[in-house]
Amino acid sequence: MAEGRVDYRLQRRVALDNLSVASRALEQHCDAHPELLRAAKHLGEPRGEDCPVCDEVELVSLHYAFLQNGPKSQGGRVVEPARLARYAERHGDLLVYEVEVCRGCHWNHLVSQRSVRRPARAVGTA
Ligand SMILES: [Zn+2]
To answer: What is the distance in A from the centroid of ligand 1 to the CA of 53?
Structure first.
């Protein structure tokens, strides 16, 4: 189900290193879109890890699911990880981006991307 996962942890560390070098970068990285913040507030799942930037607020995760065969203009939908398989079953193959967000200082970072395949059995039964 979770194949082709790409981990962006290294990029995260690099981003954090850059933060410590240039304080100006803080603004650049803490640019969470209002929609992202709203989703984080209502749908974010605690990561059990404090924000690496402000060190005050626990990070939350959001999983954005995009239809692989859908129009590119179509925005991703926030889907709980436990519901991704069912979502794929109903809508088709998905590309899922996990984003971590700080609801305090608005730090946000792409944690990983992976594809979730629609279960073969479900094809044509919708
Ligand atoms: Zn923070």
So the answer is: 5
Residues whose beta carbons lie less than 5 angstroms from ion ligand 1: 51, 53-54, 102, 104-105, 107
The string of pLDDT tens digits covering residues 33-76 is: 888 899 999 999 999 999 999 999 999 999 999 888 876 666 78
Q: How remote is the CA of residue 38 from the centroid of ligand 1, in Å?
A: 15
Strand partners of residue 80 = none
Q: What is the DSSP string of 70-108?
A: S-TTSPPEE--GGGHHHHHHHH--EEEEEEEE-TTT--E
Mark residue 124 as left, alpha or beta (left: phi above 0; alpha: psi -120 to 50; beta: remaining). Answer: left
- For 6, 94, 96, 125, the CA distances from 122, given in Å and listed in that order, are 26, 14, 19, 6
Q: How far is the CA of 101 from the centre of ligand 1 (A)?
A: 8
Q: Output the pTM of the full model.
A: 0.71
Structurally, the chain folds into a number of domains equal to 1
Distance 80 CA to ligand 1 centre (A): 22
